[in-house]
Structure formats: structure tokens, C-alpha cells
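Known limitations

C-alpha cells in this collection are predictions and should be treated as such. Users comparing against experimental data should check residue numbering before alignment. To illustrate the layout, the record for LRC43 protein is reproduced below. The input appears on top and the generated C-alpha cells appear beneath it.
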Amino acid sequence: SVSAAFREHLRHLGLQSFPCSLGSWNKSRFDARTSPCGGQLGLVADPGGQEEAMPLGEESPEALMELLSDQHSPWALPPDCSPQDQHLREMAVLTPELVRGSNIFQVFRSLRIIGKGVEEVDEGLLQLQQLEELILSANQISRITSANLPRMLKVLELCCNAVADLQDLCAQPPPELQHLGLGYNRLCSPSQDKYLTADFWPNLVSLDLSFNNFTDLLGLVSQLSSLQKLRILVLQGNPLALIPTYRGLLVDSLPKLSILDDIHIGPDERHQFHGLARQPELIRSEAQVVVTIGEIKGVPDPSARQQLEVGSEAPVITYTYCVTYEF
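Generated C-alpha cells:
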């Protein structure tokens, strides 16, 4: 589940162990002498202007922070870690009370769990009430219950999963969602087209449906046209993208669209395809694919004729081949 993967992620960050947290190594840094404004802590000065001596076994916040940032430190995070992970480690040194117990759930604004074998988006995710971005790419999710998604969510990325039905996701979708990523899943038309409307996604700005199995271009366009805030759309990799008038129809049918399949839509292109949406007879739901064989190695050439001696009784050997393509 997502909750189990989240707990494992926290364990990997080591927020409750040296050099983070409130261990004996920095306990005195966060007692009653803590700055009332919640700023970084330093050495405490006495009335005579002399800095108080650091108790044995304790480190200053600056020294602890250096252990996190120095790439040669055994406590440093990998260079490819997210900025949020680094920020959490720093908080665990400077303000450890904010990442202890249930307080940690209020800190997360973004959560990235990629390629961890997650199958279920469980209700434990609701503890992250302030979560705005949820990235669950390259897992094994086949269905999502929208009631388990935080209501503040603005970005939901589900690329490279096994989602084939959007019904559960659309039961109580996050009302403020701005990006929905469903590329490389198992969605198909016309059964899923009805879930891609403003009734479910009134604030959607970006939609990725690439590399699914959508085939009904006209049906999908009629549903997407209700998404008045949609500016970015990705449909490449679907069978409908092979239709000759595919791009022209979308450009003319969705006048507020700015980017289609990662290509900007300019004024010239809009003028070129103007009026195409009113001519459905030009839209043919078929495509032609031409396949040519460039070179084959390792088999006898069927066109090479054997030179037989005059009067030879040796049998003549011929070769023929059949090449099969599966789509």
C-alpha cells in the first residue's frame, strides 16, 4: 500500500536518528533557550558576554547540518534525492519537534513513491491533509478509490501502472486537481471517455492520456471539450493518434489548448485547421501503416540462383520466407 511505502520512505530518511532528531547529541540546543521566533539556534551568551561552553557529547546545529550537506558524509542523502527529502532532514535538525509523531503528516506537500511495487492507495494517505502533489509512477496500481485521496491534491501522477477503469477515481475526485497523469496504462474508449469531463475535473489544466488504447477520436473530443481550463493535452501513443486528421481536429475543437503532445499550438496552425471540426466527414477512423524490410542477415538469399553444371542431376534448392508482424 501507499502507507507502507510511505513509512519505509521515512525510515530511509532517518529523521529520528543521528544527526537528526532530539538525541543526546543536540538535546540542549532545543530546550527552554530556543528562539521564540523559531529561528536557527546558536550558542547561548551569558550576561558577561561569554559564550556558554558546549556540553560534552553534543554538537552545534551548524555542525549537524554540515553532516547532512557534505557529500562525503555517511549521513548525506544521495544526490538524486528530492529537495523535499533534504528539507525534511534539515527540519529534523533545526526544528525536530515538527517532524516527530503525527506532526510529520502536516509537513508533506509532495510525495513521490516511484517503482516500489505499490498496488493499493489506502485510506492512510488521508493523514497527509496538506498534500498537494502525489507521484505514484511505475507501480502496480489497477484501481484508485478517490475517497482515499487528500482533498487538497492538485497533482496526481499515475504513469506506468495498470489502471483500466476510472469509475472509482471519479466517485469523489479531489476538486482542486490541476494535473492528471494517466500515461502508459490500460484505458480504452469508449467506456472511459465519459469520465474525462468537467463534471469530475472542473479545474484540470493538464491531462496526460498517452500510450493507452483510446480509439474513438470524435467521442473523446466531445468529452474533453467540456474541460474549459485544459491547456496541456498528451494523447500520443494511442491508436487514434494515427488518424490523418487527428491533430487538426483537436486543435480546432479545443480552442483554449496551448500544447498538444508536447508541441506548442501557434496561431498559424490554428488558422490552418480552422473549420475542420465542422467537417466530420473528413475524419476517417482508419490508418495506413507501411512496413518495409531494410536488411536481413544470417539466412540464404532467395534471389541468388544456383549455377548447375550441364547435365547435373543434383536437386535444385529454393528458399522462400514469410515475415509476420503483430500489432
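For this record: The CA atoms of residues 46 and 287 lie 82 Å apart. Residues 32-52 have pLDDT under 50 and may be disordered. Please report discrepancies through the issue tracker.
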